[in-house]
Amino acid sequence: MFGFGTPELIIIAAIVMLVFGVGKLPQIGTSFGKAISNFRKAADGKDTVELPPQKES
Q1: What percent of the residues of the chain are helix, what percent strand, and what percent coil, each to the nearest 5?
Q2: DSSP 8-state symbol, 57
Q3: pTM for this one?
Q4: What whole-number distance in Å separates Cα of residue 46 and Cα of residue 39?
Q5: What DSSP character marks residue 46?
Q6: What one-character DSSP code corresponds to residue 19?
């Protein structure tokens, strides 16, 4: 996962808790989860138009 190990993730989580505080973490997690969900839905959407098969003559 991007070259991050367990110690790096723990340090990042501690910094996030210091910056945002423990009270706002659930709100941040919820909004982050919704953003990732919306991104995945948009990425799975079809970008091409399906054409009906052509008749052979």
Answers
A1: 60, 0, 40
A2: -
A3: 0.49
A4: 13
A5: -
A6: H
Contact residues for 25 (Cβ-Cβ < 8 A; gap 6+): 16, 17
Give the Cα separation of 46 and 43 in Å (integer). Answer: 8
Running DSSP on this structure, what letter comes out for residue 45? S
Q: Dig out the tokens for 17 from the structure.
A: 């808790």
pLDDT score at 11: 92
In whole angstroms, give the CA distance from residue 25 to residue 14.
Answer: 11
57 pLDDT higher than 70: no
Question: How does pLDDT run across 7-41, given as a tens digit for each residue?
Answer: 898 898 889 888 888 888 888 889 989 998 888 88
* Cβ atoms 41, 49 nearer than 8 A: no
Tell me the backbone φ, ψ of residue 45, rounded to 5 degrees. Answer: -65, 155
